[in-house]
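Anyone have tokens for N-acetyl-gamma-glutamyl-phosphate reductase? Sequence:
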Amino acid sequence: MIEAGIIGGAGYTAGELIRILINHPEVNLNFIFSTSQPGKPIHSIHQDLIGDTEIQFTNKINTEVDVVFLCLGHGNSKKFLAENQFSENTKIIDLSTDFRQKSDDHAFVYGLPELNKAEIKSANFIANPGCFATAITLAILPLAKNGLIKDDVHVNAVTGATGAGTSLSETTHFSWRDNNFSAYKSFEHQHLNEIGQSLKQLQLDHEAEVYFIPNRGNFSRGIHATAYTRFSDDLDAAEKLYKEFYANAAFTFVTDEDLHLKQIVNTNKCLLRLQKFGDKLLVTSIIDNLLKGASGQAVQNMNLMFGLDEKMGLNLKASYF
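Reply: yep, here.
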């Protein structure tokens, strides 16, 4: 059995990790570290787990676990690892932005399986991709693979309220979010850096801009992204490129059905739909921001790192009604 630990156990992504790992056939959840909830049962925070587990939060860390997931706020993972040292055999999967940019200062591999599966399998440290970055990058990677991003890419995407985490702010209160819609961080979202890095990895001459407008939706979870750019060939050619690129992807699928969030919420899937309008290719991409955009993808990476079936523990079904 894989002995696993979670650092930062009270947030949304940690809750999803706990739900997956307590049911994973090859994992024992060894500890869930929380500075705010030590000694409390995890179901006091993640209340749907009443009757499922009696694990308690702890302020003690087992440094000998096989894998540790860092579910900390952005900027805090680096600080935590500087202050706490795990065994040389412990694999680390970080869900923050701290290690997503390649650097000589760290050995973290960017954990997008559709892009870096071989590297993930041999990695000890994984930087789990951001939620917007996952949805958008998967929408346009096949174009980059074939050197076809020659013009700017325009992206509009909306995420649910859980994308902002559990900390309260003016724009996360129910009275503000309900029956509301707004854009934020237009053209400046932090995930643009990792999107650009991934595109450049496959298309070395990539210099086009990705213009991204993120939006806040008045629903709980899910990301609906649309991306379009100039594409000179026809729709059949585009679909062929995408289906070939994702032929061996465990969770990313190309479909000609209309897309909506109920198809993917509570799953680790990414669904893509291609449409052609004049000389523009429009790609719609949908994911669950807490699963394929965070915790589900983290477990997918763990499975690859330990030589398990990529889908193990992730047979999650959408709640359609």
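The CA atoms of residues 35 and 59 lie 6 Å apart.
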